[in-house]
Amino acid sequence: MRRKLAIPGHVFIFLIALIAFSAASPALAHRLNVFVLPEGDRVTGEAYFNDGAPVQNSPIQLLDADDKVLHEGLTDGDGAFSLPVPEGVTDLTVVVEGGMGHRGETHVTLSPRKESAPVATIPRPTSTVTGPTAAPVLSADDIEALVRKVVSREVAPLKEEILRLNQKLSRPGMTEIFGGLGYIVGLVGVTLWAGSRKKDG
Amino acid sequence: MHIAEGVLSLPVLTTGIVTAAAGTAYGLRKLSMEAIPRCGIVSASLFVASLIHVNLGPSSVHLVLNGLGGIILGWSLFPAYLVALLLQAILFQFGGLVVLGVNTTAMALPGVLAGLVGRWLLHRNVSPMVSGFAAGAGGVLGASTAVAAALVFRGEAFRASATMLVAAHLPVMLIEGVVTGFIVSFIAKTAPHFLGVKRS
Q: How far is B120 from chain A (nearest CA, A)?
C-alpha cells in the first residue's frame, strides 16, 4: 500500500521539474556579480544580476586591503561604473549593494604602477640612415597616453567578450542542478538506510 | 530571496543560526520514516524552485514554494530547506554558508506557519484550491517580511524595505498561490495523508 502511495510523489517532482526546466533558461536572481577591469589609474566594470539584468543606480564602494573605504559612488543605468584608484594601492575590493539583501564583491590585484618612466629622455636613434632627426620628440607621457588609447580601443571588444563569458559562467549549469538533486536523493537514501538499520537492530 | 554574504550584522546572523538549528532539530524529531522520501522530494523541489525565474523590472524573483513545503511537511520543512539552501550556496553561490541560518529561517519559518494555516483551512473543509492558495501566498508574504526584518538592522528602513520587497513579490504571491492551490488539490485527491488530513 505504501508503495502505491509513492507514485503521486514521483508525479509531483516530475511536474515541478517540468515547470523548472521549461522556465529555467532565463537564469536566476539572487546573485549579484561584479566584473572589474583595471584601466590605467581607474577601475571600471559592470555589476549585474545572474539573469544579466544590470544593477542600476546602486551604491558601490572601493575598499583597500584593510577594508578602508577609498571611494564611494553609484552605478549608472547600465550597471557600469568607473572609480579612481589612489596611488600605491594594489589590492582592491569592489563592493556593490543591490538592495534587498543583494550584494556582490570582487577582488582585484593591480600590478604596481610605475611612477616616473625609466626613460625620461628617449635616446636618439644613432643609426639614422637619412634625413634630419628633427622629428617631433614625444615625451614618455605622450607615448604612454597614446599607447593606452590604442590598446584600450583594440581591447574593447575583447572586454565585452569576457563580460559575456563571465555572465554565462555565473549561471548554474545542468551539471550543478543535477548534481544537487543527486545529493538530495543520496541523502534520503542514507537517512532511510540508517533508519532501517535502527529498526532492524 | 536569498540574502547575500556580508550584508547582515552578527546578532542577526547568530539569531538566524540558532533559530534554524532549533527548527531543524525539531523538524528532524517530527520526521517519521515514511515521511523521509517526501522530505527529500520537497527539498529537491525547493532546490530547483529558484531556477523558475520571473523577470520583474530591475529586480528578479523566483518561485519560493515554502508554503507548499509547509503544508506537506509541517515542521520537517526546516531540514528540507537547510539541505536545499546548503546545496544552492555550494553549487550556485546563492546566499552563502554564513547566512545559511538566516536564509533557512526566513524561508522555512513562514513556510511552516503558512502550511499550518493551509492545513487548518483543509480541516475546516475549505477547498484544497483555496487552502493551497492561502498557504502559497502566505508563505511568500511571510518570507518577504522576514527578509525585510533581517535587513532592518543594517539601516535599510524597515517600512520602505518591506514595502519594496512585498510589492516586488506581489505577482509571485499570486503565481505561487495558484501553483500551490493546484498542487494541493492534486495531492488532496491522490494522497490526502500527505496533507496531514488523516491526523485530526
A: 22
